[in-house]
Amino acid sequence: xxxxxxxxxxxxxxxxxxxxxxxxxxxxxxxxxxxxxxxxxxxxxxxxxxxxxxxxxxxxxxxxxxxxxxxxxxxxxxxxxxxxxxxxxxxxxxxxxxxxxxxxxxxxxxxxxxxxxxxxxxxxxxxxxxxxxxxxxxxxxxxxxxxxxxxxxxxxxxxxxxxxxxxxxxxxxxxxxxxxxxxxxxxxxxxxxxxxxxxxx
Length: 201
Hints:
Blueprint: H1 5-18, E1 25-29, E2 35-37, H2 38-56, H3 60-69, H4 74-77, H5 90-102, H6 108-123, H7 127-146, H8 163-166, H9 170-196
Antiparallel strand pairs: 1-2
Helix pairs in contact: 2-3, 2-7, 3-6, 3-7, 6-7, 7-9
C-alpha cells in the first residue's frame, strides 16, 4: 500500500500550504508574551484530545484528527476572534472555500477524509465533533488564563464564551468550572493592578 510520485507531491503541496497556519496569529499570548499562532493552539488542542479521549468516551484518533484540522482554513482566512461582530454564514463560507483550496492537491481519498472531518467538526454531527468543539473553547480559555495578555483583552468575555459547547459532557463541564475560576482570579489580579496604579493629577 504505497503512494505514487504524484500522490506524494500532492501531500507535500498540501503540507506546504498548511505551513501558513504557523504564522497565523491569534489574540492570545503565550506566558512569555509572544503572540500565539493558530498552529500552536491546534497542537495543544490535539494534546488535550489525546489526554482526555478516554474519560470523554471518545475515539482518540478521530478526536485528535478533528482537533488538528478544525482551524486549518485559517491558513488562508486568518483568525477571526470570537468577540468580533460577524455576519451570519460569511465566516463559514470563506472557511469552506479555503478548505477546498487547501486540499485540492491531496489524493482523492485523503481529500475526502480531510473535508469530511472538517465538516464533522463544523457541524458537531458526531460525539467526537461535539467534544472537539468543547475542547476548542476550553483551550482558548486556558490560554487566556495563563498567557501574558495584551492590554485591553477582554477575558471576562470567556465567562460566557462557548458555554453550550463545554456543557455537552460532565468532564468538559468540570474543566470549565476550574477555568472559570482561573479567569475570575486573573480578572481580580488585573483589577488589583489597576487600583494600585498611581493617579496623575
